[in-house]
Specification:
Largest sheet: 8 strands, mixed
CATH topology of the largest domain: Dihydrodipicolinate Reductase, domain 2
Strand content: 15-25%
CATH superfamily of the largest domain: Dihydrodipicolinate Reductase, domain 2
Strand order of the largest sheet: 13-12-11-7-10-9-8-14
Helix content: 25-40%
Number of domains: 2
């Protein structure tokens, strides 16, 4: 069957992030938005009207919409699996917002269903698609750090109590899957493990220190050991007023790279290349707000656009996705290991065999 000139996208879940999905599809090459779905009629109607497409409250009817090829999942985190499985059974490809799901078992059911249906599932991690991160990845893969020694992810963000009170699912294990790490810090954690390689062991602390009426952490700190032998740390919070830019720091015996938000603020190597000055001119420090540090809407849709274009290209050409479901699962496993260590009071080794038992961090 011939692939149409533009593949039809449909959005499931019409909360805040759906607007970014819609803008990304409208701006992309090779795709068009054809319909949206939400179980809440007002939410479905709002996004449908905004983008001029039909809206549905019945998922089965949505999946029958003519010309629907790709479904983007933008429901609360712990409600990704059910529409994903239905969409795969209906023969649709998927792009699933982070996290892929909130337990390893639910992640694995999506991965298995995609394999059975022979359909693509992209895990949405737009931070990987920024030009500065691609330049960093290229340098790391070329061995410019030398022997890796230390990798750090720091996410000192802020969310008000009103943010958590605004949705009944926020700050719950079942639907949010966790707190500052699973919801806000996951993009930076994904970058750290993508750049430094697999984590083999960690030890962590976490707590609920500044917010009320939620089950999950608003601050966490973990010490890591990577497969390479390098050490590292993850520190993430939503209790750092007023919220400042995230940092990823990479060190080795031949070089170091520091990224603040998306800007490369340090690019130092024992062996210089002629291209280094161009990298810093293009991706070096710029003044501007820290994306998402205090306002979850203060992000760009460009990374989503590039990722949706990668999915379309993968479908057309049969090439591998840059971030498939198995890749998206990795950051979930790291975060669940942090929770297991913090709640169990012990180091945790990889791979995790199952999702650890979770209990409220609150007093």
């Amino acid at each position: 069957m011939a692939v149409p000139e533009k593949l039809g996208f449909g959005i499931v879940g019409c909360g805040m992030i759906a607007d970014f999905h819609g803008m990304a599809v409208n701006a992309m090459k090779g795709g068009r938005l054809v319909c949206v779905h939400d179980v809440i009629p007002a939410s479905a109607g709002r996004v449908g009207a905004e983008f001029g497409v039909p809206s549905y409250t019945d998922l089965d009817e949505f999946l029958k919409h003519p010309g629907l090829d790709i479904v983007t999942i933008a429901t609360p985190s712990g409600a990704h699996m059910e529409p994903a499985l239905k969409a795969l059974k209906a023969g649709k490809h998927l792009a699933v917002e982070k996290p892929l799901e909130v337990t390893l078992e639910r992640c694995d059911r999506i991965i298995a269903a995609a394999k059975k249906a022979r359909r693509k599932v992209a895990g949405i991690f737009p931070s990987r698609f920024g030009g500065s991160m691609l330049a960093v990845k290229k340098a790391v893969d070329a061995g410019r750090l030398g022997s890796p020694s230390l990798g750090i992810a720091l996410i000192p963000w802020y969310r008000t109590q009103a943010y958590y009170d605004s949705g009944g699912w926020r700050g719950t294990w079942k639907l949010d899957g966790g707190g500052a790490l699973m919801n806000q810090s996951i993009h930076t954690i994904d970058l750290l493990q993508w750049l430094m390689g697999p984590v083999v062991q960690l030890s962590a602390y976490a707590g609920l220190l500044a917010h009320k009426r939620i089950e999950v952490e608003d601050v966490a700190a973990a010490a890591l050991r990577f497969k390479s032998g390098a050490l590292g740390s993850i520190v993430g919070t939503t209790a750092a007023y007023p919220g400042t830019a995230r940092r990823v720091e990479l060190y080795g015996d031949k070089g170091s790279i520091v990224i603040v938000d998306t800007d490369i603020v340090s690019w130092e190597f024992d062996g210089k290349l002629a291209s280094d000055k161009a990298v810093l001119r293009k991706y070096g420090p710029k003044k501007g707000p820290a994306h998402g540090a205090a306002d979850p809407r203060a992000i760009s849709f460009e990374g989503h656009q590039l990722q949706f274009e990668n999915l379309v290209e993968s479908i057309r050409k049969g090439t591998p996705l840059l971030v498939d479901a198995a890749e998206a699962r990795k950051s979930v496993e790291v975060i669940l290991a942090v929770y297991a260590s913090a709640l169990g009071g012990r180091p945790v080794s990889f791979p995790l065999k199952k999702t650890p038992r979770r209990r409220p961090f609150g007093k």
